[in-house]
Design goal:
The protein is about 25% helix and about 15% strand. By secondary structure, it is an alpha+beta fold.
C-alpha cells in the first residue's frame, strides 16, 4: 500500500536515455555486418563507437537470407539485446 500511495502522489517522468558522446547509431545489414540503407527490409540500427563502424556498404538482402545462421548476425543480435 505504501508503495502504491507513494507512486500515485509522485510526479513521474519518462526515462529518455541520452546517447553518449562518440557513439553513432548506424543501419547495418545483419547478414553481412556491412552498412545498409535504413530502407532495407532487414536493416538494423546498431550503436558504434565513432571510427569503428563498417566502411563497406551492403546491397539490400532478401528476408529469407536473414535466417541464415552466421556469427555476424548472432553478434549483432547480442548487441541489440543489450540496448533493449
Amino acid at each position: 500500500r505504501a508503495w502504491t500511495r507513494y507512486m500515485a502522489e509522485e510526479p513521474l517522468q519518462s526515462y529518455e536515455p541520452v546517447m553518449p558522446e562518440g557513439i553513432e547509431m548506424l543501419w547495418i545489414d545483419p547478414l553481412s555486418g556491412k552498412l545498409a540503407d535504413g530502407l532495407c527490409e532487414n536493416a538494423t540500427q546498431i550503436p558504434f563507437i565513432s571510427g569503428t563502424q563498417p566502411t563497406e556498404t551492403a546491397a539490400c538482402t532478401t528476408p529469407e537470407e536473414t535466417f541464415i545462421d552466421n556469427p555476424i548476425k548472432r553478434s549483432i543480435d547480442w548487441v541489440k539485446d543489450i540496448f533493449r
